[in-house]
Amino acid sequence: MFELSCPACGAPVTFRNRVSTFAVCSHCHSELLRTDLRLEQLGKMAVLQEDYSALQLFTSGRYKNRSFLLIGRIRLAWERGQWDEWAMFFDGSAEGWLAEAQGQYMVSFPVPPERVVLADSPSVGSAISLDGNRYSVKDLKTVKCIFSEGELPFKAVLNQEFVSIDLNGENGGFGSLTLSEGSTVAFRGEYQRFDELALTNLRQLPGW
Amino acid sequence: MNDGPAPAAKIVKCPSCASSITLRGLGRTSTLACSSCRAVIDISGDEFKILQQEQSLAITPVIALGSRGTLKGVLFEVIGFLVRSDGSGQYQWGEYLLFNPYHGFRWLVEANGHWNFVTPLTTAPEPPSGFGHPAIPYEKRRYKHFLAGRAVVRFVLGEFYWLVKAGDTVDVSDYICPPYILSMERDQSEENWAHGEYLPVEELSKAFPDAGPWPFSSGVSANQPAPGSSYRTTLSWYTLYFAVAIIAVHLFVAATARRELIISNSYNFNRTFASGNTIVTEPFELRGVSRNLQLVAEAPVDNSWISLDVSLVKADGSEFDDAVLEVAYYHGSDSDGSWSEGGRLANVVLPSVPAGNYYLRIDHTADPGWSITSIPYKLTVRRDVPYNGNMVVGLLLALMPTGLMWVIKLFFENRRWQESDYGSSEE
Lengths: 208, 427
Hints:
The complex is a heterodimer. Chain A is 2% helix and 57% strand. By secondary structure, chain A is mostly beta strands. Chain A is globular, with a radius of gyration of 17 Å. The two termini of chain A are 34 Å apart. By secondary structure, chain B is an alpha+beta fold. In chain B, helix 2 runs antiparallel to helix 3 (388-418). Chain B contains three helices and 25 strands. Helix content of chain B is 15%, strand content 45%. The radius of gyration of chain B is 39 Å and the shape is rod-shaped.
């Protein structure tokens, strides 16, 4: 864990994950790109209105007997809706993602690029292999970042576009591909129930 | 940073009738049906789009939108209500969407006054297997196929997490393992599974005390537990243990019965004298705790009878108990062959005779057509003999309530499966 100074306002910006290359200053909401120990301001992140997320930065929980902390968030929007992806930080090593949609929680982990087999331009129904498991493309959509906070392992500035591809797994698992700025990252995951995750430090919602 | 408290629930204006609506789904819902004008609106995008201007039905939910109640330890709010029917429209049921921002969505489904608490599943269970009657193994239980059909949305109110309007149709298939049910719904693009548990209306009305009036439950619902489910298995096992214990005790008592010989004498019924009608035995002493007393009479009857009216008399002359020993034996042959009826022995057991001094007084009658003047017979009296009667009665009493319970269950299951695609041909 190390701390750098925000180039815009001087407030401390903490990095827990060595792999995080992007952060949003908690003080002045500047979008900051990190190279080694230098921070460069890219722009300003918007304030998210009507945020009813049940999760928040530094919510913690357990997945398969390991504790995690949520250290970053990106909110993605498409024409029919929005959802959050939260960066899960497991003590020092694995980087996972926790997504919540319709009260269902999904935990996923990146698949090493050498374990991803896919066609050049995937379309609905295309077969994809992740880590030796077979998936098929469920849908593709262009999404854009409408908000981000905390620290993230990729650039997530306001209005940045990604192509998000949902995959159906053979045994009910799910996967996804995220394409941005020429690179593709694949993820594999499973659903978890709220009580399975043993979440603490959840966001307080009015009336709840 | 968005780490401050979240804003209060959003209030919007209905694009059709302009009335104010509070959105309860906290950003997780896509459809809204206005309570005032019943227009169905797509709220998923930046702008609201009207999906249906109006609906032909208007049905009041039993549990009002906005009601909150705790079920399975979690507080839920009712945010949506829809009414669906089968393909013909004759059979309708209500569905209530429950929301908790942390735990997600659940459903309350009401059909014929019976309620189910339903959880949407994220992954499909294994496909059904089994010859004859398909069943799905799920979480260590077997869910047997109950019915397949269609579900058509007839009316919507409030919010939903997918785009829905009146007329939407899906194929459904239900599998039961009472009190649980697995439900599958499929349309052109998606297949969704849900797991339900029968919810007694008493529990539901405690969670939502302001709701009602609760519809009367009629018939047997698919996954309704049979009466006595909670204790039937335990009671059956205990009955079995009890029956085994009864038999064991009886075997023990029989093995340890002393069969103590008290009298073994031959007597004569002298019919020529009036005084020969009655014989009094020697007195005898019975010792120890109360035990039974067996009287066995043996007489050389041959197509005739002799009847001994035996009184067990205490030393002070008062009668303690009495019994009739009738020895009768008939035999012959006719067109069907030879036959016989009765026997040369008669046996009676007097229960619980306490210690003391007694004698027997025997009054005799015999078949008047029997010409001999003096009828000999042998009387054997034994104390503490094994006696099956108690065991039989004990077993019947032990097995009866459990037997009755199983009969009730059988009739119940019959009624249950009448409603299925399988008629009443199931267990």
